[in-house]
Design a protein that fits this description.
Shape: globular
Number of helices: 13
Helix content: 25-40%
Strand content: 15-25%
Number of strands: 21
Strand order of the largest sheet: 10-9-8-5-4-13
CATH class of the largest domain: Alpha Beta
Largest sheet: 6 strands, parallel
CATH architecture of the largest domain: Alpha-Beta Barrel
Oligomer: single chain
CATH superfamily of the largest domain: Glycosidases
Length: 451
């Protein structure tokens, strides 16, 4: 091979590597309800909760983790720089702590170089990092957390500006302020978080930004920060108990002005003790998690986060367990819901994405906020509709907001991602019965107007 040809292939390989590393930035769509990439394509947020990734795994373990999640269809990883599990004093997998001196706020370059490498590896595999500069216990510990409490308005601003400058050119980054703590009444907490966000913005960073709260009502981040210019989309934590009408939080956010996208950034984790009470209630089940996720997205969420209880904490046998994980993180990557959540993205992206709206008037039955609540979504022009039936119950439909008088559809199985059956409905009033009924027999009906 000639020298010039060798040089050509080397340049080509470098170009391809750079193209992989520089993923298009994620932006808010002009209609303000959903996300898109900078090249105008739909971006359906499908995240895994890996809070301790940057703290506990080395690069080899990180590559194994990312490769597994890539095969399962995820596109966002939620991770924290100053991590929850004693992330200030407990070193990372290479023995490095984030600070050389906390008294003088002297950062440890080696610690953050590891984070740099994870960002690079994630980009190569097509992942965005939903990046928390710190966990909330570094602002206040509340009833749990090891802290230490290091943030004042001044230090929050300075840290935000420092870390913002470091990662301002990272296109596969989405900023997440907060970290499992809600601002306390009669405190300066809101001011501290605003200062951290201001510091990031003043650094020149222009990536999207949100806030990760604890469970709260009526919204999540919107309760405190909806009017802040730095908050580009809202985030919830809907908690670790089943039987919560999580769709109400999404609907609440989307009713606010100005309109901003909304995402459940922490639903009930897979293999998590229900309501933190494994002895009496057992562990979460895929049917509960699917219901939460489909409810949220069909209500209008811009995507959905997933989490596994062992994986968020990167639990291993040499680690102190938090709330009784069942097995180590690497043995917990291949759980049922981790392999099923990609089907939610598939069904949503099968139709025109940006004009999708929630429309509960399509359900003719009166409904209670229980496990059987059927949620409906349709195209803005009425050209299609999707219905999610958590328990497969017979349901009356009112198709008045859809085009035409005849509709063709099929059943979509959230467990397998398989569509089957031919459903023909005529007229605006119909009663449908999903293929099977009962707990765990959830179904999606997709209808398209054909006249």
């Amino acid at each position: 091979m000639s020298k010039s040809l060798s040089t050509f292939f080397l340049v080509l390989l470098l170009f391809q590597a750079n193209a992989q590393e520089n993923l298009p930035k994620v932006l808010v769509h002009p209609d303000q309800k959903y996300l898109m990439t900078a090249d105008g394509k739909p971006f359906f947020w499908l995240a895994d909760t890996a809070w301790e990734l940057l703290h506990r795994l080395d690069l080899e373990e990180t590559e194994f983790y990312l490769e597994t999640r890539k095969k399962q269809g995820f596109n966002v990883i939620q991770a924290v720089a100053l991590a929850e599990l004693d992330g200030i004093n407990d070193p990372n997998a290479y023995g490095e702590k984030p600070f050389k001196s906390l008294q003088t706020w002297e950062y440890n370059e080696a610690y953050f170089q590891h984070i740099d490498q994870v960002f690079k590896l994630a980009a190569e595999k097509g992942f965005y990092i939903a990046f928390l500069p710190t966990w909330g216990d570094k602002l206040f510990k509340n009833s749990w957390g090891t802290g230490p409490e290091i943030f004042t308005p001044e230090s929050a601003y300075n840290y935000g500006k420092w870390i913002g400058k470091r990662y301002k050119d990272q296109t596969n980054l989405i900023w997440v302020i907060g970290g499992d703590r809600n601002p306390r009444e009669n405190s300066e907490d809101i001011y501290v978080w605003n200062e951290m966000a201001r510091g990031i913005k003043d650094s020149g960073a222009s990536q999207l930004m949100t806030f990760h709260p604890q469970p709260s009502s009526p919204g999540g981040s919107s309760n405190w920060f909806h009017q802040e210019s730095w908050l580009d989309f809202n985030m919830h934590q809907t908690g670790h108990c089943p039987n919560q009408p999580t769709y109400q939080k999404i609907l609440h956010d989307l009713s606010l002005s100005p309109t901003k996208p909304s995402i459940d950034g922490e639903p009930m984790y897979e293999e998590h003790p229900k309501c933190f009470n494994a002895k009496e209630l057992g562990y979460s089940e895929a049917a509960d998690i699917r219901r939460i996720m489909y409810w949220n997205v069909f209500a209008g969420a811009a995507g959905q986060s997933y989490g596994c209880h062992a994986v968020w904490q990167m639990y291993d046998l040499d680690k102190t367990p938090v709330n009784a994980p069942l097995k180590p993180w690497n043995l917990s990557l291949d759980l049922e819901m981790a392999n099923q959540v990609k089907h939610l993205k598939e069904v949503i992206l099968s139709r025109n994405y940006f004009d999708r709206i929630n429309d509960q008037s399509l359900i003719a039955n009166s409904q209670e906020d229980n496990d059987e609540f059927v949620v409906a979504s349709r195209g803005n022009q009425g050209e299609y509709a999707m219905f999610y039936f958590p328990t497969g119950k017979e349901t009356a439909l009112d198709l008045s907001n859809l085009q035409g008088e005849k509709f063709e559809g099929n059943w979509f199985d959230p467990r397998t991602g398989v569509s089957f059956g031919s459903v023909i409905l005529e007229g605006k009033k119909n009663i449908v019965t999903p293929p099977s009924q009962g707990r765990g027999n959830d179904w999606v009906l997709i209808l398209d107007s054909i006249n």
